[in-house]
Specification:
Layout lengths: L7 E7 L15 E2 L2 E2 H11 L5 E5 L3 H7 L6 E4 L7 H12 L6 E6 L7 H9 L7 E6 L2 E9 L3 H7 L7 H6 L5 E4 L20
Helix pairs in contact: 1-4, 3-5
Length: about 200
């Protein structure tokens, strides 16, 4: 195991505009008194990612002003409206040349996923060739760890809201699934009804 907490970088995709939530950026939705973006960064750090890159998009200036994100690398995605694929590409681009061996990717709108799931996925890393995903009752979900050897391929196929889905499907035989259903809930905050999950 060559991981020292810096080799695996947390990559938080937090650019979404909350179109189905009346245009409220998901990063700033409040959960337990703090913006979702702060919860997600805390989960990545507590799960063992010493370095965290956060991709911002919708109302990025407001997120910077209202959220406390000390020590994070904040990455702007001006094309965020074109979908999550653009945020994933922007995030992976920001890691180029940093010496990172992998990006452990989490979505800002999944507050039911905490440090335990992050730590499990991170613990399955063994080289820049690694592809690891959390699973919930055997079904692939987030967080997902992308070894650096895969970044170019993922960036080439990440379009619209699909992110890395096509790449992971194409390389399904190489994806190590780590069951996390006992320590995390993989719901998304996408609609008004989903806001019931927030506390």
């Amino acid at each position: 195991m060559t991981d020292d907490g810096n080799r695996i970088v947390g990559l938080l995709l937090a650019a979404g505009g909350g179109r189905r939530l009346g245009g409220r950026p998901k990063a700033l939705l409040t959960h337990r008194g703090r913006p979702l973006v702060e919860h997600a960064v805390a989960a990545l750090r507590a799960g063992g990612c010493a370095r965290v890159h956060v991709v911002l998009g919708a109302r990025a200036d407001e997120v910077r002003a209202r959220a406390s994100l000390p020590g994070c690398v904040l990455v702007d995605n001006p094309a965020w409206e074109l979908g999550m694929g653009t945020s994933l590409r922007a995030g992976l681009d920001s890691l180029a040349g940093t010496g990172a061996g992998a990006a452990l990717t989490l979505l800002v709108d999944q507050p039911g996923i905490g440090p335990e799931a992050v730590a499990r996925v991170r613990g399955a890393y063994d080289s820049p060739e690694s592809l690891v995903a959390a699973a919930y009752d055997g079904v692939r979900g987030h967080p997902v760890l992308f070894g650096a050897a895969h970044w170019a391929g993922i960036a080439a196929t990440a379009t619209g809201d699909r992110g890395a889905r096509a790449y992971l499907r194409e390389h399904a035989d190489r994806v190590a699934l780590v069951e996390c259903g006992d320590v995390a809930e993989a719901y998304d905050i996408d609609t008004e009804a989903d806001l019931a999950h927030l506390e």
